[in-house]
Amino acid sequence: MQLSARVLPWLVGLTAVSLILGLGWGFFFTPDDYKQGATVKILFIHVPAAMMAINAWIMMLITSLIWVVRRHHVSALAARAAAPAGLVFTLIALVTGAFWGQPMWNTWWEWDPRLTSFLILCLFYLGYIALWSAIEDPDTAADLTAVLCVVGSVFALLSRYAVKFWNQGLHQDSTILKVGEKDPLDVAYYVPLVICILGFVLFFIMIVLLRTRMLIRARRLSVLQARERMA
Amino acid sequence: MIALLKRDLLLSFRAGGGFGLGLAFFLLVAVLVPLGVGPESGVLATIAPGVLWVGALLACLLSLDRIFALDYEDGSLDLLATAPLPMEGVVALKAVAHWLVTGLALTLVSPLLAILLSLPPVAWPWLMLSLAIGTPALSVIGAFGAALTVGIRRGGLLLSLLVLPLYLPTLIFGAEVVRRGASGMALTTPLAALAAITAGSLALLPFAAAAAIRVNLR
Questions:
Q1: Residue B77 class from Cβ within 10 Å (0-12 exposed, 13-18 middle, 19+ buried)?
Q2: Would an 8 Å CB–CB cutoff place B50 in contact with chain A?
Q3: What are the pLDDT digits (tens) for A91-101?
Q4: Over pLDDT 70: what percentage of chain A?
Q5: Residue A56 lies in a domain
Q6: Residues B33-92: pLDDT tens digits?
Q7: Are A92 and A52 in contact (CB under 8 A)?
Q8: How close B88 comes to chain A (CA, Å)?
Q9: In this predicted complex, what is the ipTM?
Q10: For residue A231, is it within any domain?
Q11: Which of B148, B153, B163, B197 is the mutation pick for testing A, counting most A CBs within 10 A?
């Protein structure tokens, strides 16, 4: 708590700076794409949000495993704190994708593997959050959601491959890691995009810290109330 | 072990066990869809694999909460937890019992419903085969979901929210087998994938489900 209290103001500042810098640069100081026009700038929200949607789930998986192995309560609460953030990132990726797809592919929605996997990821987040809120005893809830998270990760991966098999895609592959290959992402986009990604990562860490602190306080409060009742 | 299996089967066949419910639901889906979509046999034949698989999935879902809920309420689950049979075995047996009552029954009646949805006869064996291979996965995944939600009162809705996303890979590969079977394409890949999902979930999910039950009984 002490450490996070000291880190948080800096983190908020850094997040704001990198998001303003990255998004501002991305929106106002990059050239329009010769094919896509100004819509290409959706990239600066769409890609970081999509990356964080997956990374948030991975972080939940890791913290759930830490909870199962080490029984560290903060770890379980951090997983709980990350879930709504991950859900929102998933929704942002889906919605901005729809706005981007409408002018480019002439459709709001297409049953493309990437889009479908994100919709499925969205369902997994919903189930996870619903299970947390349905169980009253905090330790039971932490245990059960941890099991769900592990099993869900396996099935989310399975769904990803099943969906790929099921339909060929319209969505392009990731080009971020393809520097030097043919058809790379232009440098004019690359730098602000990296700053945006950094901003989204910091933003996610900030939200998780804030929400974990909130959950820890809520837990302390309920313990105090319970003691009050016992006395 | 056999005694437990027998007991579960008997309970589900007796009144209120929900044996007929799943089948009736499956039949209803096959009746409702043509009424909603229209009677053109061409359209029906193209959507039949998906409709039948979705119907089977929902029919399975219908009886999931019965796997553990009744035993949890009357305390027999506590007894089973102290029995010499490990919890993993109990879960696996209960999933098997659930499959015998729903999955196997659905598989056996599926050709009848395939006629209703004018699925071409070449696809019937593939429909039965894919259901026979795929529905055990549905039962054991469902048993896992039921184990997670057994301690929650009125957890039925939550159960479907948790289980349906887990059903997606099975649904995709299962319907793909039938679709390819209907059009005479090579179908070893989806069939193998379906079998792999079933084998994998049968082998691993009882452990996860047993862990969830132990947490719930704590």
A1: buried
A2: no
A3: 999 998 888 88
A4: 87
A5: yes
A6: 888 888 888 888 888 888 899 999 988 888 887 788 878 888 888 888 888 888 888 888
A7: no
A8: 15
A9: 0.83
A10: no
A11: B148
Contact check, Cβ <8 Å, A135/B176 = no
The distance of B171 to chain A (nearest Cα, Å) reads: 9
Answer whether residue A146 is part of any domain.
yes
Across-strand partners of A33? Answer: A37
Cβ contact, residue pair A166, B193, below 8 Å = no
Contact call for A162 and B162, based on CB within 8 A = no
Angle CA A49–A51–A57, to nearest 5: 100
B193 reaches A (C-beta below 8 A): yes
Residue B151 and residue B72 in contact, taking contact as beta carbons nearer than 8 Å: yes
- What token pair was written down for A194? 């990296």
pLDDT at B14 over 70: no
For the cut 90, the answer to whether the pLDDT of residue A86 exceeds it is yes
pLDDT at residue A64 is higher than 80: yes
Question: How many domains does chain A fold into?
Answer: 1
The domain of B148 spans: 2-217
Out of A140, A148, A156, closest to residue B162 by CB: A148
The C-alpha of B10 sits at a distance from chain A's nearest C-alpha, in angstroms, of 30
Four-CA torsion A166, B146, A135, A89, nearest 10 degrees: 0
Beta bridge partners of B193: none
Please write the tens of the pLDDT for every residue from B94-127. 888 888 888 888 888 888 888 888 888 888 888 9
Q: Which domain holds residue A79?
A: 2-172+184-225
Helix axis angle for B41-62 and B156-183, nearest 10°, is 150
User: Which tokens go with A213?
Assistant: 């602190």
pLDDT at A34 over 70: no
Question: Could you tell me if B90 and B79 are in contact, meaning their C-beta atoms sit under 8 angstroms apart?
Answer: no
pTM: 0.85
Domain tally, chain B: 1
Residue A230 in any domain: the answer is no
Q: Could B151 and A148 be called an inter-chain contact, meaning their C-beta atoms sit closer than 8 Å?
A: no
- Give kind and range of the element (H or E) at residue A167: none
pLDDT value at residue A129: 92
Q: What distances in angstroms separate CA B204 from CA A151, A196, B216, one per listed residue?
A: 10, 40, 19
